[in-house]
Amino acid sequence: MDxxxxxxxxxxRYLLEGTRCSHCDQKHFPPVLICPACQSxxxxxxxxxxxxxxxxxxxxxxxxxxxxxxxPYIVALVDLEEGPRITAQLTxxxxxxxxxxxxxxxxxxxxxxxGERGLIFYGYKFRPLVTY
Amino acid sequence: MKLSMKPDKPVGIVGYGAYVxxxxxxxxxxxxxxxxxxxxxxxxxxxxxLPGPDEDTITMSIEAAQNALLRAEIDxxxxxxxxxxxxxxxxxxxxxxxxxxxxxxxxxxxxAADFEFACKAGTEAMQAALGxxxxxxxxxxxxxxMDTAQGRPGDALEYTAAAGxxxxxxxxxxxxxxxxxxxxxxxxxxxxxxxxxxxKYPEHGxxxxxxxxxxxxxxxxxxxxxxxxxxxxxxxxxxxFHQPNTKFPQKIAKMLGFSPEQIKTGLLxxxxxxxxxxxxxxxxxxxxxxxxxGDRLLLASFGSGAGSDAFSFVVTxxxxxxxxxxxxxxxxxERCVRVDYATYARWRNKIxxx
Lengths: 132, 354
Prior knowledge:
The complex is a heterodimer. Chain A contains 2 helices and 8 strands; from the N terminus they run H-H-E-E-E-E-E-E-E-E.
């Protein structure tokens, strides 16, 4: 992640902001200009609720250098409540606790750091739903 | 001359939220490593909360503030200030508060700033936010009290330096869950505890910790506030003091005439340690979770350097309707996974990967 890209994508990464098709109501993440379902160009920003379910996952032990601090960590396919299936890291869960189908919720966490002097990148991860 | 402060326009806490990370380091893990387990039985806390490797003051502030917004039941865009008090802001230059504002949909029409005053940075932000709302400059203001405190390995502070905190949306009294009666701040130049720029760990001013710092400042802020409001200790349903350990808040309560029962709900230090700027505000959220309409509550922080902010609030009927709109403080404390010293040392950068 570089600085301009991180800035450009901040609402996607913080608010899980995708698009909704005004014509057929399909929701998309990441955002799209043309709806893949009905080819309408009438798409508007849409913030996802952050609720979802775990579709599948993989535990990463050999990580790219920017993620080494988090090893072992879990990369997941998350089915968002509103439809789209997205890729995200899981957090606050160990490989022993994770279960396919478990309800998840979005949290904002540190994704990576540009060394000791650079920017800290924040964005969405998912954790097991905290019930209260 | 009145020494305490009271708003002209009635204001209060409209929404509150807590956050405590999931991990705990038992105090016995520290004493086993550094003291051969010798001081077992006389440890300052049972365990302390520990942030995960992807957590910091910013991520924790976002979750606490989100909980406060859920209870406030307002559009985030109505908030005109995001003030974050902490001594562990991830950046030396770049505000935590703008990231929080962006992540919660509060940006762009808001003022944003980071507050700093050791363990009372959070109540400073609360007091400023209450004043901002009371002046009419803002309908709603957000104040955050959050820390991921660090103690030098082997130092007495390592047992207690913990992570967690709270956030408060403040605004008009008619929407409040707790209305402000008054506040008193007492600050002097007292060298009890400090950390110089570029230093990772703080230093103690030895004999200044305790009597001339914690006890003197809290006693003055609380006694002056009670005098000005014409209140007595028994008028309060619950009281929260800054809690650097278990003993200090128990001792100040006794000194000022409060019973162990009054401090019980808000005394979280034995179970999660000292969350620094987060400590007394987090204890206050635990009290609000249990509060009933009409309860009078006292919050008194302490920050090294040194000062204390005391607040008196009266709980309204709205508390019952919003309590359950976000996770309780107790649910965060119960949600815990214990880790060993090695995991803690890796996550908190006490050992490095080269």
